[in-house]
């Protein structure tokens, strides 16, 4: 199976309106920048986007929010995006806020083929509304369902033409699980190499999960919020 495509535009060419898409990364770290730009150019609309966060106003998923291409966000942390806040408060955007651990586990369970699991997180809050509750060891737990997507889009540090992926540090958060939870998985990589060039012990996502892969470019590596310590004054 030929997995290598020439560009982000080719990789996302068949994503339809109203698709459910997972997008990897953590904050602005390890997000699939090239594919997000391609989605913006494509003009597809009414997307449901599953991502830990919603980017910032002019970068990451914030771009797709600005162009009104996202109908619904399923996220954990969204506090750095003013446009997200505006659309939410004005009823222009559907939002499911999920505890971060629950979100990560729902994605992981989808990749493992486990349909549901129980967690104490969220019990007694609005998150519990309409969910089955069972008691384990004297403590109530909510039943949460696995979270699948039509397409999973991730960015890796290295990948080979067979689709094997290697991530770096924080970029592994969510991306490794998302790559296994989409019906079609698209990977953009900083370095595309030939089979045999990756150490098998360092591969985080086996190529069997990846359907399309391409060499990305022009990564910005932006920081969501930069905080520095003031120098001691004496």
From TrEMBL:
Organism field: Puia dinghuensis
Pfam families documented for this protein: CoA_trans
The organism's taxonomic lineage, starting at the top: Bacteria, Pseudomonadati, Bacteroidota, Chitinophagia, Chitinophagales
Keyword match Transferase: yes
Protein name per its UniProtKB record: Succinyl-CoA--3-ketoacid-CoA transferase
GO MF annotation list: succinyl-CoA:3-oxo-acid CoA-transferase activity
Keywords of the record: Transferase
Cross-referenced NCBIfam families: pcaI_scoA_fam
Keyword Transferase: yes
């Amino acid at each position: 199976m030929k997995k290598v495509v020439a560009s982000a535009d080719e990789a996302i060419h068949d994503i339809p309106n109203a698709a459910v898409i997972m997008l990897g990364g953590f904050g602005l770290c390890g997000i699939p920048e090239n594919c997000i730009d391609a989605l913006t150019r494509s003009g597809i609309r009414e997307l449901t986007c599953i991502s830990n966060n919603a980017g910032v106003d002019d970068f990451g998923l914030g771009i797709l929010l600005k162009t009104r291409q996202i109908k619904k966000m399923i996220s954990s942390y969204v506090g750095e995006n003013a446009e997200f806040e505006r659309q939410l408060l004005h009823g222009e955007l559907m939002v499911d806020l999920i505890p971060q651990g629950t979100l990560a586990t729902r994605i992981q369970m989808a990749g493992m083929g486990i349909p549901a699991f129980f967690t104490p997180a969220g019990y007694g809050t609005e998150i519990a509304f309409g969910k089955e509750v069972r008691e384990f060891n004297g403590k109530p737990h909510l039943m949460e369902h696995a979270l699948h997507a039509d397409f999973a889009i991730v960015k890796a540090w290295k990948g080979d033409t067979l689709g094997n992926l290697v991530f770096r540090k924080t970029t592994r958060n969510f991306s490794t699980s998302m790559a296994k939870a989409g019906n079609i998985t698209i990977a953009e990589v900083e370095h595309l190499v030939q089979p045999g060039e990756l150490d098998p012990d360092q591969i985080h996502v086996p190529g069997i999960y990846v359907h399309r892969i391409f060499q990305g470019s022009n990564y910005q590596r932006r920081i969501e919020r930069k905080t520095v310590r003031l120098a001691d004054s004496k």
